[in-house]
Here is the input.
Amino acid sequence: MATLRKAGYVQSIRGAQGGYTLTKDPTEISVGDIIRIMEGPIAPVDCLLTGIENNQFCARAGKCVTRDVWAKVRDSINNVLDSITLADLCQDEKSKNAIEIEQ
Here is the structure.
C-alpha cells in the first residue's frame, strides 16, 4: 500500500474506522496503472526496457528480427490491461456474486 500511496492512488485514514481509500474514481484507474506502479514496466523481454541504440540488455537489439514481435506482444498486453478499470473489476465481481446467489 505504501507504493500506491507514494504514487498518489490511495490515501490512509487514521482511527478506529481507518484504512485506505482511493484518491481517484475507480473508473480512472486501470489495471495497467496498478501493475506498472507495483511491478514496473511491462515487457516480455528485457531488451524492450531500453531503446535500440546502446541497449544494455542486448547488443543486437537494432538488428533483432524478433524484437518487433515482442514489442507487439508488449503493446497488446498493455492495451488489454489499460482497457480494464478498477470499476470494471468491481462490476465483474458483483455480476459473479449475483449469479451465485441465483443458483
